[in-house]
C-alpha cells in the first residue's frame, strides 16, 4: 500500500491510512487474489448488462464491478442459494433415475412415415323429415395402424395456414395413422350434433370410415337461442 503519496502527507513520509483507504486496499487485494483462483468465464450465474454492471442470475443482485460480484459469491446468500439449487438438482436426478412419483412426464412424438391420402367418396344427402341438407363422407383406410380409429374434428378457416381465411367456410378434418390428414372445405353453417344427425362409424373389417354431417336449417340457426323453437323440427 502506498503511504508516502497519500494526500496530506509530506514527501517521503509514511502518513496514516484512513479506515476507508485501508478497506479499499483490502478489497482490491482480495479481488486480485480471487481472480487468480476463480475463473469468471466459467461462472454460469454472472452476467454483464448493457451499462457495464455485473448481475448474479442466481440471486438476482446487481454489482458495480467484478470484485463486488466475487465478494457476493463468498457471502451467505449466494452460498445458500447454491446449496438449495444443488439439492433440487440432486432430487430431480433421483426422480428421473428411479421413476419416482412426481416425475415430469415427457411426451415423445413419434415420427411416422406418411403413406399418402386415403380414398374417399362424398355424397350429398337430405333428411326426408326435416329437409336438412348434409354430406356423407366415406373414407377407406386399408393400411391403417392396428388398434387405431380415425378421428374427426371441425376447424375454422382462421386456424389453417393454407388458404386465405374466409369466415364463410370451415373444414372437416379426418386423421388416421399412418395416412395424411384429410381436410374437407365446408360451408360455415352450424352442424346439427343431435343423436342421429351427426355420427361417425368405422368398419374394422372393410377398413371404411363413415361420417354423416347435417346442417341446421335457417330457422334452427335463427332461433337456436330460443328455448323450445329450434329442436321442434327434429321431433316430428
From TrEMBL:
GO BP terms, alphabetized: spliceosomal complex assembly
Annotated compartments: Nucleus
Keyword terms, alphabetized: Metal-binding, mRNA processing, mRNA splicing, Nucleus, Spliceosome, Zinc, Zinc-finger
Taxonomy, superkingdom: Eukaryota
InterPro entries: Matrin/U1-C_Znf_C2H2, Matrin/U1-like-C_Znf_C2H2, SF3A2, SF3A2_dom, Znf_C2H2_type
Residue numbers spanned by region Disordered: 1-26
A GO term from the CC aspect: U2 snRNP
Membrane-spanning parts: none
GO molecular function annotations of the record: nucleic acid binding; zinc ion binding
Residues annotated as domain Matrin-type: 54-84
Main subcellular localisation: nucleus
Keyword Zinc: yes
Family membership: Belongs to the SF3A2 family.
PANTHER family: SPLICING FACTOR 3A SUBUNIT 2
The protein's name in its UniProt record: Splicing factor 3a
Native organism taxonomy: Eukaryota, Fungi, Dikarya, Ascomycota, Pezizomycotina
